[in-house]
Write a structure and sequence with these properties.
The chain contains 10 helices and 19 strands. By secondary structure, the protein is α/β, with parallel strands linked by helices. The protein folds into 2 domains: 217 residues, TIM Barrel (Alpha-Beta Barrel), CATH 3.20.20; 101 residues, no CATH class. Strands 1, 12, 13, 14, 15, 16, 17, 18 and 19 form a 9-stranded mixed sheet that branches. α3 runs parallel beside α4 and α4 packs across α5.
Length: 377
């Protein structure tokens, strides 16, 4: 089997979704499965839907178009404010988009009218993380204006926290969002269907609060895909953390000194990392580079230590492992590692389909050289 490759356990993604959907249902909160870290892989999206997600979200309209082309008919949400240059595609390929800019709303309205469609809008509120969002004092006015734009319907309000600045989604923040929802409903004289409390970072609050207020949706990606929460990157009890495994091949294995010799300057990617002198080590080069994965996001097998990574070479200390060229090493990945591995044209993707005995694995992406990534699904 080709390497490097991501082995994807679809049943783990489905079960993670089902577990979170069940826990949040007690609070009256539904789940939109966010599939952006997998480049909108339809097989992963279908696993989320089988697990009970009410819809799928992605930050790239191209990935939403791929979902539609793959036959996915569930509601699709663009979870990034649309680019003006793509409003026609946004209206065509998504049911809902998250928005903050009046000029973008104008363009979406024109595109919706031209296509004879109605496009749903969720206005994003700035609650302190300083990424996207309308100031709290401007939300009501912008919400009222949506209804005056033909082809658009105000679906709800939402917020995003813990992405840029690490601001924690807590009771205070969610209470503020609920108050803004009530103000917007009064001003617009209509109920809002969606109150989106944020991403996977909001799980700790959502699962423990005694008062979810008006929040009735979370947009979950990392928690479903990796079984971890973003605030502290800790595993979530009851969830699988091994849905993705990155497998790569060893191309060199030799005993080498632990320290370099000669006059030292910067490495290919910046400053030297100080390391102790441990004598000879069993060093291996793995055919994997920064083009393929974020080295800081790799989880090495027990007994193996990541030493360095350049564009195309991962250097590891094998410890006591007796491995040779041609052997493979399997790594866990964090969120940034998954994101880059799914994007790399050099990393194949293989779905492990445990429930189909006669077909234990399905190639999602064969090796394709340097063809554009967006054409691989």
């Amino acid at each position: 089997m080709t390497a490097p490759r991501l082995e994807i356990r679809l049943e783990a993604i489905e079960q993670n979704t089902r577990t979170l959907v069940g826990r949040l249902a007690v609070q009256g909160i539904t789940v939109t499965g966010v599939n952006k870290a997998t480049l909108g892989c339809p097989a992963v999206g279908r696993a989320m839907l089988r697990g009970g997600a009410t819809g799928l979200g992605d930050s790239r309209v191209e990935s939403l178009a791929r979902a539609r082309s793959a036959g996915i008919t569930t509601p699709l949400t663009l979870v990034r404010t649309p680019m003006l240059s793509q409003v026609g595609h946004v209206v065509r390929d998504s049911d809902t988009s998250l928005n903050t800019e009046p000029v973008v709303l104008d363009a979406l309205s024109a595109a919706a009218v031209a296509q004879g469609r109605t496009h749903a809008v969720v206005l994003m509120v700035e609650l302190g993380d300083l990424r996207e969002g309308v100031a709290a004092e401007d939300v009501v006015a912008l919400a009222r204006s949506v209804g005056r734009r033909p082809g658009l319907v105000l679906s709800g309000l939402g917020t995003n926290l813990a992405c840029r600045s690490g601001v924690v989604p807590d009771q205070t923040k969610m209470d503020e969002l609920s108050r803004l929802v009530e103000k917007a409903e009064t001003a617009c004289r209509t109920g809002l269907r969606v109150v989106s409390g944020g991403n996977s970072a909001g799980l700790a609050w959502a699962l423990t609060t005694a008062d979810p207020g008006r929040v009735n949706e979370l947009r979950l990606g990392e928690a479903i895909l990796l079984g971890t929460e973003p605030l502290h990157r800790e595993p979530i009890e009851g969830l699988a953390t091994d849905a993705f495994t990155l497998v790569a091949e060893i191309i060199e294995a030799r005993d080498k000194p632990s320290l370099p010799w000669g006059v030292l300057a910067q490495t290919a990617f910046g400053a030297q990392v100080a390391r102790p002198d441990t004598g000879l080590v069993r060093q291996a080069i793995v055919a994997l580079g920064r083009q393929d994965v974020d080295p800081d996001s790799l989880v090495a097998p027990p007994g193996v230590t990541v030493l360095a990574m350049s564009s195309d070479h991962l250097v590891v200390d094998l410890g006591d492992h007796d491995l040779r060229p041609g052997d493979e090493l399997s790594f866990g990945v964090g969120y940034s590692g998954l994101l880059r591995a799914m994007t790399s044209p050099f990393v194949a993707q293989v779905a492990q389909v445990a429930e189909v005995a006669e077909a234990p694995s399905v190639d999602l992406v064969p090796p394709v050289g340097l063809e554009p990534t967006l054409d691989r699904f």
